[in-house]
Amino acid sequence: MGHGLCAMGQSGGKHVEVRGNRRRLLVGRVDGEAGPGVVAGEVNEDDRAVINGLDEQSIIDMVGGGRARSISSESRTTPGQRAMQSAGDALDPAALGLGHTCRKGSWDENQDSWSILTAETHSLYAIFDGHGGKGHDVSNFVKDSLPKLILKDTRFKTNEQANMISDVFKKTQSLVTTSDRMGKLSAQMSGTTATVCIHDHNASTFTLAHVGNSLCVVALALGTTWRGLPLMRAHDPTLKEERSRIERNGGRIVFDGHDSYRVYARNAHYPGLDISRTIGDLLGHLECGITAEPEVVEGKLAPEHKALLLCTNGVWEFIEPTDAVTIVMQFPPQQAMAATERLAKEAWDRWIREEGGAVVDDITVVLVRLDAKENSAEGSKTNSV
């Protein structure tokens, strides 16, 4: 990848373009939750034990040693922004150059979730965009479970991290299946995107994994201007390899007559997904070739890379990566929270303008200023003069 950003993995080291086709809804609302019934199966007792164990463990306790701080969205939905929960040492977003916001759109439930964990050597940033009638429940379950599975894995912080995170995504899908059979979740036709970034502070490297269309870009400084470099692609069912897998596994891809190509089971009118990789969506996985196998990218951050920006499709629907980066980088690192609010407002305004106020998607922004210490040091020098 150009401009000093060395990326390896399934992206082949190439710049990954964010596709520009418009996606009003991940799931066709006309289909609702109507389906052929429940995906049957016995409860996996090993998974049941894992689920119970994760419920009982604090994510901070799992970090082990050193200072650690965790903040994430709460499960309950508020009229505007989703409430925040925290654990561990007190987290000062301004000092760390961290920003986050999660705004409810037009629907009854805010189906987006997010999580940030910072420790001495590594941090983890994650966003999730639920869909379907119970997508908010699936999104929250995955938000609570997937980061813990990463921390529990012995390959975390080793050179096997790429394989580890891929296995964790698939294990999370298994836990969702088991939770559905236990009656804790309704995931037959509800699911979530998932985008997770593991950031190694000392090595200035990252490991990114995702399913769906919640994307991460890096802010590249070009003199006095900015460029947003996508680090991943949206999992569109019309992509050659995605279409091949879907059709090979019983699915079909149909244009919905408006804006999107959607995935349906053969001779059926469900699930109507317009992304080809998700966590949850049990019928889609069983009958349509939907998969929880993530694409994984590992890369090296360079001095000209000033921020990581993770957003759900509520942002990317109408805002290009460079525009988004330009908006948030108008603010200094200590105002990262204000920067995310500004981007979220711009995304909201564009939804209103483009859709005539008929629909606004949930909007989540997580901003990580990589230059926070750099700016802090410059500020200290200025103050000492």
From TrEMBL:
Subcellular location, record wording: Membrane
The keyword Hydrolase is assigned to this record: yes
Name the UniProt record assigns to this protein: PPM-type phosphatase domain-containing protein
Domain PPM-type phosphatase: 97-370
Taxonomy, superkingdom: Eukaryota
GO molecular function terms noted in the UniProt entry: metal ion binding; protein serine/threonine phosphatase activity
Cellular component, GO annotation: membrane
Database matches in SUPFAM superfamilies: PP2C-like
Keyword terms of this UniProt record: Hydrolase, Metal-binding, Protein phosphatase
Main localisation: membrane
Family statement drawn from the similarity comment of this UniProt entry: Belongs to the PP2C family.
Entry membrane topology: Peripheral membrane protein
PROSITE patterns per record: PPM_1 (PS01032), PPM_2 (PS51746)
InterPro entries assigned to the protein according to its UniProt record, in alphabetical order: PP2C, PP2C_BS, PPM-type-like_dom_sf, PPM-type_phosphatase-like_dom
Keyword flag Hydrolase: yes
One Pfam family in the UniProt entry: PP2C
